[in-house]
Amino acid sequence: MSETTVTSRTIDGVELPAAGTYTIDESHTHVGFAVRHMAVSKVRGQFAKVDGTLVVGEDPVQSSVQVTIDTNSVDTRDETRDNHVRTADFLDVENHPTITFTSTAVRPVNAGSWKVDGDLTIRGVTRPVVLDVNLEGVVQDPYNNHRVGFSATTEINRDDFGVSFGAVMEAGGLVVAKKVSIEIEAEAVYQA
């Protein structure tokens, strides 16, 4: 990293990160999910290993993002459940070691918020999804790194990606719901 200070910029009254390439800071990024369990509560989990690149365009709508998630890094705070999620019933980690997201378009919603269209691939199945993205901040850290933070959410139907585990409760209803909420808190560091 050069000693050159990178500055943010203001567009339409919003402080935005400088144009350029940023890498996701894995230790300060959370990729989580929540799914209803037995129709009475939600189970939450996360992926500990995530890698990605964010390219911020001079014009923010020309920005792009590419992310790779290590499916084996799933953590739901229950080792037995994690091991089941890694099987062919769910993520099929042996045959599909990664989940990927590649953006295809960025659409402004309002100051500091965008819809990011992209292709999500789970278990080798690619489907279009839309992330609701908010800029959380831009900062120069004490080590002279230019950082940016974003939050994002979306919902998917796991059946759309071939995750069709269908255990049914005795009284009816699925043990694991089909709708999965995805929650992301991402921090990225300027590279060039």
- Beta content comes to over 45%
Secondary-structure element series: EEEEEEEEHEEEEE
Low confidence ranges: none
Give a count of the beta strands, DSSP E runs of length 2 or more: 13
Gap from first CA to last CA: 9 Å
- Assign the CATH class: Mainly Beta
Write the layout of secondary structure elements.
Elements: E1 9-11, E2 14-16, E3 20-24, E4 30-37, E5 41-47, E6 50-56, E7 64-70, E8 74-75, H1 79-85, E9 98-110, E10 113-122, E11 125-140, E12 146-157, E13 176-190
Antiparallel strand pairs: 1-2, 3-6, 3-13, 4-5, 4-13, 5-8, 6-7, 7-9, 9-10, 10-11, 11-12, 12-13
How would you summarize this macromolecular structure in one to three sentences?
This protein is mainly β and 192 residues long. The protein is built from 1 helix and 13 strands; from the N terminus they run ββββββββαβββββ.
Protein model, in words:
The protein has an eight-stranded antiparallel beta barrel with strand order 3-6-7-9-10-11-12-13. Strands 1-2 form a two-stranded antiparallel sheet. The mean pLDDT is 90. The chain has one helix at residues 79-85, and strands spanning 9-11, 14-16, 20-24, 30-37, 41-47, 50-56, 64-70, 74-75, 98-110, 113-122, 125-140, 146-157, 176-190. The chain is mainly beta and 192 residues long. It is 4% helix and 56% strand. The protein is built from one helix and 13 strands, in the order E-E-E-E-E-E-E-E-H-E-E-E-E-E. The protein is elongated, with a radius of gyration of 18 Å. 19% of the residues are buried. The protein has a single domain (9-190), classed as Lipocalin (Beta Barrel).
